[in-house]
Prior knowledge:
Blueprint (H helix, E strand, L loop, with lengths): L1 H27 L16 H22 L3 E5 L6 E4 L4 E4 L3 E5 L6 H20 L3 E2 H7 L1 H4 L2 H14 L9 E2 L5 E4 L2 E4 L2 E4 L8 E2 L7 E5 L4 E5 L2 H9 L2 H4 L2 E5 L6 H14 L3 E4 L4 H12 L4
Amino acid sequence: MAKKNELKSELKATKELLRRCLEDEIQKGNMDLPEDTVKIEDLNRRKTLERIYGLIDDIIENIYSTGKPTIELPSRSNSNIIWDERNDLLLLGQQIQKKQFHSLTSVADITRLMRVLEIINELLKKDMHATKREIFYTDVKLFQDQKNSDKSIEDVATMLYTTRNSTHVVASARGSCVGRLRIRDKNDIIDLEGLGSGGWGISPMLDNIEIIESDAEFILVVEKDAAMMRLAEARFWRDYPCIILTAQGVGNVAVRMFLKRLSKELKLPVFSLVDSDPYGHYIHSVYMRGSKR
């Protein structure tokens, strides 16, 4: 019993420390990024559409002025991935990749890019979402392989200097969450304490999710789905007020973004339960610092 009380005391101290850090960040304003990196912003639907229209205007103007339009976007190659030691994040550098409309070597990439841009524009105007797989099936002859459509999707998001989620293109749902948390998914209120051992499947459409309330004291990220089920069956959060989530391995974009929202909005510390091996440390690192994707 004494050990349990000691653990709770330590958790409260950690939570208070995190709250102070978050308050300091708010007072400082936006995070200072290194000068040799670019800023990728999470945009709402209207602002993303504005960037698309601005991009198209630039292309049209380029056509009239030069007759040989090009598209510029930050390179996503390994050489342009920068580790920001101060903020402990992986960031995009300022290397620019140019795609030319009139070049035979890039005409296929440009065509796929513009097709994806057209699809994203329609999704945003209708306020709908599509999975990456759906994007591929809209034009199989053009994309030929899903790797090509996935690359174009990432290129469009990078070209607009925004996250993929802001383009309303989402990955298939993979990940679950359970514990002391209530959320609203459009008109539905969901209590994650009453969803059994399976938990709530983390929706990739996070712009529809509103965090209502939580009395949790920390967030626990679990690598293994089996460990998640065991904790859920034992109702771990009743003895230790927490929110538990898993991505069943390496955290995908939806799970990581949801975790980031939980941590920031609820001002909660995050702990991870992973295997003590290189792969487990890699999973922990992806949650902490992000990845190339």
